[in-house]
Amino acid sequence: MTESYAGERETTEGKIYNVTGGDWDEALEDAITDERIIINMGPQHPSTHGVLRLVLELEGETVTQARSVIGYLHTGIEKNCEYRTWTQGVTFVTRMDYLAPLFNEAGYCMGIEKLLGITVPQRAQVLRVMLMEINRIASHLVALATGGMELGAMTAMTAGFREREECLHLLEFLTGLRMNHAFIRPGGLAQDMPEGFELAVREFVKTMNERLPQYDKLLTGQPIWKNRLIGIGYLPVDACLALGVTGPILRAAGLPWDLRKTEPYLGYEDYNFEVPTSTAADAYARYLLRVEEMHQSLRIITQCLKKIEPGPVMVEDAKIAWPAKLSVGSDGMGNSLEHVRKIMGQSMESLIHHFKLVTEGFQVPAGQVYTAVESPRGELGYHLVSDGGTRPLRVHVREPSFVNLQSMPAMSEGGLVADVIAAIASIDPVMGGVDR
Predict the structure, then answer these.
(1) pTM of the predicted model, to two decimals?
(2) Spatial contact of 240 and 278, defined as CB atoms under 8 Å apart
């Protein structure tokens, strides 16, 4: 007879199972005979970087075993996308890595565009790059701010979030929303930039160029900051490759792997920027790297402003290009009255076409594709499968936070409890992406 793991009881709705213990019980059993204790760290916001739970086995202050328990933020985004039209999927994927929503949108839309065999207009490509680089700065600032907060450097947090507000204000001006923009759509962008956007972006670059050096004054040479980070969370390049780790962690270990350079997309090969690397492979190297990457993003944003040319921001194909025809109403949400009058007044056929395009979506030729972008955390890849219908057959995401989080035990075991916090902060995982 098999041992029963879960208690059960009958209800009017059928059988209900009561599952308890699980990994916690197993961990305790291991440690009963030892001088070791098991502690739960998380899932709470400070110090575990979101709703991440760590089960740590300790001998004194030393971590002998670390395991991460994930799934507290599970939203089923990939499966949800399979029950929506291709365009509606944008609204879901943008909520995965909620600190880098525009990268999710770009990766997803690039996959759809590859399946459709269409090329996005030049203006839309440049604007996508510009939006993503502003978003990269915002994301790195959160990594720096929350990492500082977790180690007790409260000024790092207040300064980091102050600068992030600059990014979010600008993104709100450009796209209409601070986060979860759903602004990058299959075929281009939802709409063109607002009037005066170039001036706003120039002001932002000027402000950030003045403020970023302040982080060097505040943190880079600070002895406590250096003592907490140097030599902590060590992960050499061979370990990174074995675990599939990408992004700043891999570059801080000495490999200049950045998809913007190694496998360019959206015309990144035409931009002049450096890929910073280090060989220290510790938490301090990752911090320095992210600061330098923000400087490089500002360089790219400045080049974007020079590259922007007049033109459409959505493909001309009327069977795909509904979102760009959108004219937003006074509430910032629905269609404006003029836009509705225009559709209603053109012809019955165009109204029917508009209605079908919005409700059913466009058909995407059968096939499968993998597209990847360099998100602030590493390689963010989309594997999309189409059966020729108006909805994806399969959406699967290679999420860098999920893959990178595997490195936590390798970084933490053998170190002190306090250093687990520094190691996790240097990985910079976003739990929306891990659990999705």
Answers:
(1) 0.86
(2) no
CA atoms within 13 A on the CB side of 277: 13
- Identify the band that residue 42 occupies on the pLDDT scale cut at 50, 70 and 90: confident
DSSP class of residue 194 equals: P
- The Cα 171–Cα 162 span in angstroms is 15
Question: CA-to-CA distance for 434 and 273, rounded, in angstroms?
Answer: 29
Q: What are phi and psi of 360, to 5 degrees?
A: -95, -30
Q: What percent of the chain has pLDDT over 70?
A: 88
Residue 79 CA to residue 384 CA, distance in Å, equals 12
**CA angle 229–213–298, rounded 5-degree value:** 105
**Dihedral (C-alpha) 8, 11, 13, 17: value to the nearest 10 degrees?**
-10
State the Cα angle at 249 between 245 and 252, rounded to 5°: 135
Contact criterion met (CB below 8 Å) for 245 and 407: yes
Q: Find out whether 433 and 377 touch, Cβ atoms under 8 Å.
A: yes
The answer to whether 87 and 356 are in contact (CB under 8 A) is no
Q: Is the dihedral of CA 422, 76, 373, 195 positive or negative?
A: negative
342 CB contacts (<8 Å, ≥6 apart)? none
Name which of 434, 316, 395 is nearest 111 in CA terms: 395
Residue-wise pLDDT tens digits, 278-290: 999 999 999 999 9
Alpha carbons 126 and 22: distance in angstroms, whole number: 50
pLDDT, tens digit, 9 for 90 and up, residues 331-376: 655 666 777 777 676 667 767 777 777 787 888 899 999 999 999 9
The pair of structure tokens assigned to 300 is 């790219």
